[in-house]
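Writing this down once: the sequence line spells out the residues, with the fold written below as integer tokens. This is how one looks:
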Amino acid sequence: MSLRKSLEATESFVLPLIQYEGDDQGHEWPVQFMLWALKRLSVVYRWVVQFRLYLYRTGVVRRFPLGCQVISVGNVTVGGTGKTPMVEMLARELSREGRKVAILSRGYRKKEKTALQKLGDVFKGGASHTPPRIVSDGRRLLLDSEMSGDEPYMLATNLPDVVVLVDQDRVKSGRYAVRHFGCDTLLLDDGFQYQKLLHRLDLVLVDRTNPFGNGNVLPRGFLREPARNIARAKFICITKARHGDTDELRRRIRELNPGAGIMECNHEPCALVGAFSREHHPLEQLRGMKVVALSGIASPQSFEKSLEELGATLLKRRRYADHHRFSQQEVIDIVNEAQSLGADAVVTTEKDAVRMTRIDRCAVPVYYVRIEVRFASGEEEFRRCISHITFADAAAPQAAKLRP
């Protein structure tokens, strides 16, 4: 078994454990012991997270200002809450307002450098002296999804006028964006926990269907940090709002953060797009279509449900681990399986489409569903967020001298 498949098998075993809400009883003793051990590790992890935040808050560990607007979009849980479509919408709106925007990503599961390349970096002065990966310079794409990571590549594809950089050190990539591209607004994709770079504003997304998991931090739960830490956020967006009443969740958020602006949104399908041709088709084309649903995301159920709501008949659900990178042979096998089932098409997500090796001739067409953010309520809070970024802190010059 390959390392990738071993990791995916481990993930499929561990995820149900950390989602379990009850105590350690009612299981076989190995599972009881694992839950007990995970709970103790969570206590240690929580302490480490809170101590780290204390060091940054008190100035013991330095935060770096870059003389421009820095906005983080993130969450307090692992998994998908719809950060990428929100980052895309923010970047597009800010660009329309005349801001020069750069998106800074760490490039989760991007292809790492070889040992020889890393050795070359050492002779150049170490990682701090090597430039970030430039996915887009605001004019053209410069890297593929394997080298950049799927979310940065997707953002760069959909935002041709926005600079997209990838580096684990976002102070370094932020400086690079300001110095080399003249950017005055930096968006940190999944940046709520990134404290090294001084934020002007934090926007936190909360999934209505599973806002804080079982209440435990990693590794016993899904929380990256205690839920009460959303008190740092200036704005909070409840996602998947159409799936139920949000009043109780709003009350909980208000208890944790009385002053934040709260908005509610849904991530709605807006087009059916050819995975390899990039041709756009109306969503109505899905009605009555027999499809194989293909996904390698954290929450495949919501994707599959949306296909059914659009009128498609799901002949099969093919689910892979989150961020699974599809080989050419896997895509060929899936297409052949769809043909044998009598499917009209294979339909996947946009994130999965960018991780697929291109196939020029398919017996069955492969599409992805394009998603966009639509507000259910609180759109005025989003406008206030945009205004806060574009007009607040006018005294700070956009071309402020960078600190060393």
In short: Confidence is low (pLDDT under 50) at residues 393-404. Residues 142 and 215 are 41 Å apart (CA to CA). The chain has three domains: 13-57, 69-266+374-391, 269-371.
